[in-house]
Specification:
By secondary structure, the chain is an alpha/beta fold. The protein contains nine helices and eight strands. Bound molecules: pyridoxal-5'-phosphate.
Length: 225
């Protein structure tokens, strides 16, 4: 059995240590516990341990899990960390407090449109493809400035930061540093970077949000495609 409470405690301690090592205030870092593929019973122990910020990568899965958990626990903040199709925007707006994966104009347009209709103005991160990988979602580093301006100034979206998923076979530190640099020149404070394998590095390099799944909940079964 995975002891998720002990794991959560360990991750929190390591975040605090990494923050100190990076001369950063510990409370500048939000732990987003990534509960994708984990059933409600598996999530409850972390809620009981006080965790309130969670990440899911599928709209449908989140919709089947979180409305009930929100009835049992106050103060939950749910982040979408997976790709969002425009035909799921309405549902996503009703489920999520934060959407971390704004990665194209069409999606930004739809978020503005539907957000206005529903009276929802979630906090948004723009996903940046720091490794310029063709198979990966995200805005190219050299197009981020224009895209931020479009989302913020033309659409009036509440852009709070940038998010990245570095290439698996590269040192993540240079990608984290690049993301921090692009955010700084755009006046954005939020930096969502770092997962189970590299969140301590990310915290040292300025992450405001780390997205940690398997280090808390244990290894996930391999994805079926
Ligand atoms: C699954 C996922 C995570 C968490 O990954 P772990 O390695 O299990 O911590 C973080 N970010 C995104 C975008 C994910 O899809």
């Amino acid at each position: 059995m995975t002891d998720v409470k002990a794991n959560l405690e360990t991750v929190r301690t390591k975040i605090a240590d990494a923050a100190r090592a990076g001369a950063r205030p510990v409370d500048a870092v939000t732990l987003v516990a990534v509960s994708k593929t984990i059933a409600s019973e598996g999530v409850v122990p972390t809620l009981e341990a006080g965790q309130r910020v969670f990440g899911e990568n599928r709209v449908q899965e989140a919709g089947g899990k979180w409305p009930a958990l929100r009835q049992d626990f106050d103060g939950i903040e749910l982040h979408l960390i997976g790709p969002l199709q425009t035909n799921k925007v309405k549902e996503a707006l009703s489920l999520f407090d934060v959407i971390q994966t704004v990665d194209r104009r069409k999606l930004a347009d739809k978020l503005a449109q539907e957000g206005e209709k529903l009276g929802r103005r979630p906090k948004l991160f723009i996903q940046v493809n720091t490794g310029e990988e063709p198979q990966k979602a995200g805005i190219s580093p050299n197009e981020v400035d224009d895209f931020v301006a479009y989302c913020r100034d033309d659409l009036g979206l509440d852009i709070v930061g940038l998010m990245c998923i570095p290439p698996v076979d590269e040192n993540p530190a240079m990608h984290f540093a690049l993301l921090a640099k692009i955010a700084a020149r755009n006046g954005l404070e939020g930096l969502s970077m770092g997962m189970s394998g590299d969140y301590e590095t990310a915290v040292r390099l300025g992450a405001t949000h780390v997205r940690v799944g398997s280090a808390i909940f244990g290894e996930r079964p391999p994805l079926k495609t």
